[in-house]
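Teaching note: in complex prediction, the entire set of molecules is handled at once rather than each chain in isolation. The prompt given to students was simply: 'Predict the structure of this complex.' The entities are:
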Amino acid sequence: MEQDVTIWERESQRLITAVFNDEVGATDLAKAESQWKPVRDAAVDRLKANGKSEREIGMMLQHAHWDWLQKAPYAGLLAMPCLGIRVKEEWQGLAMIELGVKRAELQPDQGKEIVCIEFLEVAPWNLKSMVDKPKYKLVGSRLVEAAVQISISESWHGRVGLFALPQAEQFYQGCGMVKVEGAGRKGMQWYEMSRGAAQAFISGGA
Amino acid sequence: MVVEFNNGRDWLDRMIKQEDYSCVSAGGVYARVSDMEKEETGADLDVFGRLVELARRRAGMSLPDLAAVAQVNLKDLAGIEKGGVAGVEPRVVFTLAKALKLPVQGMMELAGLMKRRGRSLGEAAMRFAAKASHAEKLTANEREALEEFVKVLAECSDGERPK
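The expected output is the structure of the full assembly:
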């Protein structure tokens, strides 16, 4: 289902209306990947031309090598609800969520269901690390907000968890999420939003 | 569901500012996929190719028809049907499975992109390959072999059924 959502356009410095979709399908993923890949590749080439090593590039771009279209069928991702935000036909961000498989680590709901954001990526042209003049802001925030709202609709009180990339940790902390020590994987930390933090986040008090 | 987005100016301003200092991304599935890629797989490209070919013919599609529907390069598709294309991309397997109404997971296993979870698929694949020819028209025997194999493929795919 599609609905309007407000995001911030950097160039005009104003809020614009984009489209939120909570039923993004394989064709949309393929389209997003075809739109994003050239921008990612160009960023990598630019850094290589500037003498950066593979390791440095990896640190700077972090998920530049993730090809979600390739990976999606591997992990059965298409069985997971996929959320997306687009402006006209251009995908600005995608998130895949898993409902109730992982359990909360934080009290007072330890062991209870959460929405796990298994993947979240903002289009490369919205990232300062990829382009000189990023286009939009609020795309990532809106996808996290949608995941929290879906958790509420499942009667899970907004509980959400995710594996955060290092460059994103500060953002999630700002949303009221808490790092759960010892639960991270492959250089990513497990962050969780408790029911209290979720309430504060969506109401603006985080 | 309808998501009730917060459109309060204070909230929006705060999140706009927050996105200034860090990007937003999460990648738990990356860890999961990394693990899966290390698992042992075994491709059976000849069976995979025969299956694609028979399912295409069952659907009454020509090679160009299927290439167009599945958005696969015609030359690549012809190679796949002959069993001569190693390292078929997951995207191609996925789109072919969808276009031919075959179980995605079983197709992934046949293409060697996922670990096989039982011997039954391998045995059924051998039986199927022995019965399938490259003749233009699907014979009754081929149709039967195809139906039987697709059934096994679906059963091996955790209950996933062809749609």
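Point out the following to students. DSSP finds six helices and nine strands in chain A. The longest strand of chain A covers residues 90-103.
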